[in-house]
């Protein structure tokens, strides 16, 4: 009895004889994903995105608020230093930049402009004029409920 060699074994598995003696090669099953498999994967991805997206956008809003608070603190500190050095309030934010109390007027992160800052004059019982305080010109509220214009 003859032992089948490996080539002969593979040939018998993958080939079959046609009716007239010629050899037909059987085609293998094509590799790929079925529609059901693709739908399941897309459903899992959609579920993960529905969990991650709200957290992502709340982090963006919180970062904008923190940037706004930091910008206001830096500008208010520059106004106080200007007043302590010169015994008067600056007439505009550009005075703080020209005299190097600020490198540049920061942009409001909510309006994305450095022109929307709301400048507050000193109280009426004061005899000085100029920029006493500064607020954001943005509409809306912070996450803790305080209006952005009152920060």
What keyword list fits this structure?
mainly alpha, 4 strands, single chain, two-stranded antiparallel ribbon, 44% helix, 151 residues
Which shape, going by the Cα principal axes? Answer: elongated
Strand content: 5-15%
* N- and C-termini, Cα separation: 95 Å
Mean pLDDT: 84
Rg over alpha carbons: 36 Å
**Contiguous helical run count:** 3
The run of helices and strands is HEEHHEE
User: Care to count the β-strands?
Assistant: 4
Largest sheet: 2 strands, antiparallel
Q: List the strand order in the largest sheet.
A: 1-2
Weakly predicted, low-confidence segments: none
Structural class: mainly alpha
Q: Fraction of residues in helices?
A: 40-55%
Polypeptide structure, described:
The protein has helices spanning 6-14, 35-86, 93-98; strands at residues 15-17, 23-25, 118-120, 133-135. By secondary structure, the protein is mostly helical. It has a domain at 64-145. Strands 1-2 form a two-stranded antiparallel ribbon. Strands 3-4 form a two-stranded antiparallel ribbon. The longest helix has 52 residues, at 35-86. It is elongated.
Task: Explain briefly what this protein structure is.
This protein has helices at residues 6-14, 35-86, 93-98, and strands spanning 15-17, 23-25, 118-120, 133-135. With 151 residues, the chain is mainly alpha-helical. It has a domain at 64-145.
């Amino acid at each position: 009895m003859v032992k089948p060699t490996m080539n002969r074994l593979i040939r018998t598995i993958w080939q079959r004889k046609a009716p007239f003696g010629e050899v037909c090669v059987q085609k293998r099953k094509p590799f790929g994903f079925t529609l059901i498999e693709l739908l399941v994967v897309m459903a899992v991805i959609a579920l993960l995105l529905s969990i991650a997206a709200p957290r992502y956008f709340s982090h963006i809003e919180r970062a904008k608020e923190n940037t706004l608070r930091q910008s206001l603190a830096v500008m208010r500190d520059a106004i106080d230093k200007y007043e302590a050095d010169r015994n008067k309030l600056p007439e505009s934010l550009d005075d703080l930049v020209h005299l190097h109390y600020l490198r540049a007027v920061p942009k409001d992160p909510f309006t994305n402009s450095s022109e929307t800052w709301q400048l507050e004059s000193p109280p009426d019982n004061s005899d000085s004029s100029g920029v006493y305080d500064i607020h954001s010109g943005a509409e809306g509220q912070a996450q803790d409920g305080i209006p952005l214009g009152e920060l």
